[in-house]
Amino acid sequence: xxxxxxxxxxxxxxxxxxxxxxxxxxxxxxxxxxxxxxxxxxxxxxxxxxxxxxxxxxxxxxxxxxxxxxxxxxxxxxxxxxxxxxxxxxxxxxxxxxxxxxxxxxxxxxxxxxxxxxxxxxxxxxxxxxxxxxxxxxxxxxxxxxxxxxxxxxxxxxxxxxxxxxxxxxxxxxxxxxxxxxxxxxxxxxxxxxxxxxxxxxxxxxxxxxxxxxxxxxxxxxxxxxxxxxxxxxxxxxxxxxxxxxxxxxxxxxxxxxxxxxxxxxxxxxxxxxxxxxxxxxxxxxxxxxxxxxxxxxxxxxxxxxxxxxxxxxxxxxxxxxxxxxxxxxxxxxxxxxxxxxxxxxxxxxxxxxxxxxxxxxxxxxxxxx
Length: 370
Known about the structure:
Elements: E1 10-15, H1 17-20, H2 29-44, E2 48-53, H3 56-64, H4 73-96, E3 102-107, H5 109-113, H6 115-130, E4 134-139, H7 153-163, E5 168-173, E6 194-196, H8 201-205, H9 216-228, E7 233-238, H10 244-249, E8 256-259, H11 267-273, E9 277-283, H12 285-294, E10 303-307, E11 315-319, E12 325-330, H13 335-341, H14 346-353, E13 367-369
Parallel strand pairs: 1-2, 1-5, 2-4, 3-4, 5-7, 6-8, 9-11
Antiparallel strand pairs: 7-8, 9-10, 11-12, 12-13
C-alpha cells in the first residue's frame, strides 16, 4: 500500500564508495543517473532528499593511479581533493537532465561540535531544501587534521538526519540488506527484513567493510541508532537494484528496516550527542538514582572519581561504580577544579575554590541520558 507523502518530509540518502566507484573502477555513471532519476521521482511525490555521498577518496585514487589506499593523512587529503571534483561534476550532470539544482556541502566533525556552526549547517540545509535544491554532503576530507573521517559516511548521514529531522535514512550498499550472518562467508545467511534499533542482537550480525569502502554493516547499525534519536527509521538496501526508493515510498518491504524505537531527543540533545567525550566522572549510587529517576542536575557531592584532563564546557561521560555509563553532559568546571570539589556540598565549593561557577557540575539541560 502506498504511503501518503508529507510535503515537508525529508529523506537522507547515503551511497557508499563501493557503489559510487564500481569497486575502484572509476565513477559508476549508470548508477549516478539512476539515483538522480529516483530522487527526481521522489521530489514529484513531495519528498525532499539530502544526498550523502562517499567516493571522493576512492575516485581520487583512480584518477591518480593509486592501487592501494594511502596510509598518510596528507595523501588521503590529496586524493580527496582530486576526487571531489569529479564526484560533484558527475552528480550535477545527472541532475541537469531533470532540471534540478545541486549544492555541495562539505562538513567536518567540528562543524557539528560548535553550537553556532551546528545551527548554521541546519539552516543552510533547510533553506536549500525549501528552494528545491538537492544538497550533496560529504566530509571535508581536505581540511580535517585529527582523522580522515567522522568514522565513516554512515555516521555522517545519521548526524545529518538528526540535524534536519529527517523521517528516513536510506543507506544504499552493495548488499541487499542486513543478514543474520555474513552472506559472503555463510551460504545459509538469512536476510533480516525488520528489527528495532535498540535490539542488541544486530551487533553480532554486522560484518566489516571492503577495500574501497570504510563502513561495513557495523557502521550502518551504529548509524541507525544515531538516526533513531530523532525518530528517524533506517533502511539498508541494495543500491544496484532500480526502483528501490520508489518501493520504499510505496510501503513495500525492501532490504532491512531498522525501526526507531528509542526516546526522541530534543534539538539541543541532538547536538550534545555529536560531541566527543573529554573526561570521565564516577558517581555514587545516590547521584545515579537522582539522574536516572528524578531528572535532576549533577552536583559535586555525588562525584567519587575523575579521570582525564578537560576544560569547562567539555563533554563528560558519567559512570556508576561498575563503570557503566549513565549519561553524558557539559561540565561547568575543569578537571583541575573538579578534583578539588568532588564529594563536596555546593556550600563547600566556594570555600574550596574561592568562587562558585555554578551550583551544578552539569545542569540537567546539558545532560544526555544513555
